[in-house]
Hints:
- Helix content is about 30%, strand content about 20%.
- The protein is built from nine helices and 13 strands.
- The strands form four sheets. Strands 3-2-1-6-7-9-12 form a seven-stranded parallel sheet, with helices on both faces. Strands 4-5 form a two-stranded antiparallel sheet. A two-stranded parallel ribbon has the order 8-13.
- Helix 1 crosses helix 7 and helix 4 runs parallel beside helix 5.
Amino acid sequence: MKQIxxxxxxxxxxxxxxQLVSQGYTIYGATTSASKLEMLENNGIKPFQISVSExxxxxxxxxxxxxxxxxxxxxxxxxxxxxxxxxxxxxxxxAAAVEASSIRKILxxxxxxxxxxxxxxxxxxxxxxxxxxxxRQLLKAEQLLQNNPNFQITVLRFxxxxxxxxxxxxxxxxxxxxxxxxxxxxxIHLDDCIGIIQSIIENEVWDETFNAVAPFxxxxxxxxxxxxxxxxxxxxEFNFDKPSIGKxxxxxxxxxxxxxxxxxxxx
Length: 267
């Protein structure tokens, strides 16, 4: 079976690593936190403490990548708060390390934030025009890797991630004047994130770009009000003073190319 390196063993990366280990893969997992190393090892994952910045890489990146065929790159941009980073420069550091390794295939976990909120139906044929700094840096990172001739890359653009107690209603409950009540939701459950990544690996689908969002798009108001009721939380209040803006992300290519069936259709 293949050996795979996962850079970023957090909310998504850790259960993904566990699933791949259970399927017989040899997994090297990297985290920035020393406190997580024992947890990784106890779950059959070869642990590495690695920190990447625009200035360089701290940790044994050479050993982390050694003999692996695939790198799963799962590190979102850090653009909130005081210490904002140059994510593209960070990805460039990783690309240079990959070039010197046995890795020839990269799966980049990206985001549907590369698309603008223009009240459109979005497929992979739409040219991204991001309207946020996060989206702009993600798109540049995608392009940087796609233009590198030393490896194949598949880009996976996830919608909002939910599952395992992670749900936006916990943040929105009780809030007032929330904008865009009529905009559609574009969410995906953790189980499907893992399933789609596993399908890409098993089917050897490279040099592709996929949107990955559950085929379920009620309005924000309808969805979050119902979720608040379901979870016994305070219902949020939406502001209808301005027209709602958003987008509807289609994931038909995940179904047609990968043959994947969503586990969590109704979120």
